[in-house]
Design brief:
Blueprint lengths: L6 H35 L6 H25 L7 E4 H18 L3 E6 L4 E4 L1 H18 L5 E9 L2 E8 L6 H5 L16 H11 L3 E7 L3 E9 L13
Parallel strand pairs: 2-4
Antiparallel strand pairs: 1-3, 4-5, 5-7, 6-7
Bound molecules: adenosine-5'-diphosphate and magnesium ion (MG).
The site of magnesium ion (MG) has 4 residues, from α4.
Keywords: ATP-binding, Kinase, Membrane, Nucleotide-binding, Phosphoprotein, Signal, Transferase, Transmembrane, Transmembrane helix, Two-component regulatory system
Protein name: histidine kinase
GO molecular function: ATP binding
Length: 234
């Protein structure tokens, strides 16, 4: 018999294992976070910063796990018809506080009802990872513009910041696993984004100028319009 596992079977086992470990670790992190917040509410004012630090570090761990989970299992579980504008509105609600914390603002604009096919939570993860980098790249008076629109039969998301920008050599490394210029970076964020966008049959273009800012253009195929019920002339 063949007592050796084939390479693809091995990879499947490793990625299943990674996914289940990541999943199991996420729950205790959530619970711990909840109790920390509870304790923070009844603690001395002078000790509050420690609770905030601890909570932030837990969030960081959760983020790494989320990215890692997608790395191990990038395929979309369920693909449905989505309205890209609606998805962006949800992202706005999630990311606005983070931008404020960094002293910058998010400016949203766009058309309504842009139908695409995809998975809502993966799409969110892909776009949030780009927006998070923009927020981390901006300084005081930083602005991140996020626009959604249709162009040439495609659905487009444009994310532009006036942050620190990148050299061309840096742009070339985007999406490569573990490429990071941050002391606390994982270098997994954009790799995950690129994989998700690829699975959604989309593409990403990046334009960046050192000291000026960065612009990501993400393009997805539009879903075909839902046919209107047959009209009867009378
Ligand atoms: P991480 O954020 O953990 O470093 P990412 O994959 O999200 O990993 O990003 C990789 C690197 O790409 C970052 O460390 C940074 O150098 C660069 N980068 C990505 N987006 C931007 C941006 N908007 N402005 C400047 N640099 C960026
Ligand atoms: Mg990142």
């Amino acid at each position: 018999y063949n007592h050796r596992l084939q390479r693809t079977e091995k990879l499947k086992i490793i990625s299943d294992l990674a996914a289940s470990v990541a999943h199991e670790v996420r729950n205790p992190l959530q619970v711990t976070r909840g109790f920390l917040q509870l304790l923070a509410a009844r603690t001395d004012e002078k000790d509050k910063p420690y609770f905030e630090l601890a909570t932030n570090e837990l969030d960081r761990a959760a983020e790494i796990i989320t990215d890692f989970l997608t790395f191990a299992k990038p395929e979309l579980d369920t693909i449905v018809r989505l309205d890209l504008s609606k998805e962006i509105k949800k992202i706005e609600a999630i990311m606005t506080p983070m931008a404020a914390m960094h002293g910058g603002i998010l400016v949203f604009s766009g058309e309504s009802e842009i139908p695409i096919y995809g998975n809502s939570s993966k799409l969110k993860q892909a776009l949030i990872n780009i927006i998070k980098n923009s927020i981390e790249a901006i300084g005081k008076n930083g602005v991140v513009e996020i626009g959604v629109f249709e162009e040439g039969g495609d659905a487009i998301v444009r994310i532009a910041d006036n942050g620190q920008g990148m050299e061309e050599s840096q742009v070339a490394k985007l999406g490569v696993p573990f490429f990071s210029t941050k002391t606390k970076g994982t270098g997994l964020g954009l790799m995950v984004t690129y994989r998700i966008v690829e699975v959604m049959k989309g593409s990403i273009k990046v334009f960046s100028a050192k000291g000026k800012g960065t612009e990501f253009t993400i393009r997805f195929p539009l879903a075909e319009p839902i046919p209107l019920p047959h009209q009867v002339d009378d």
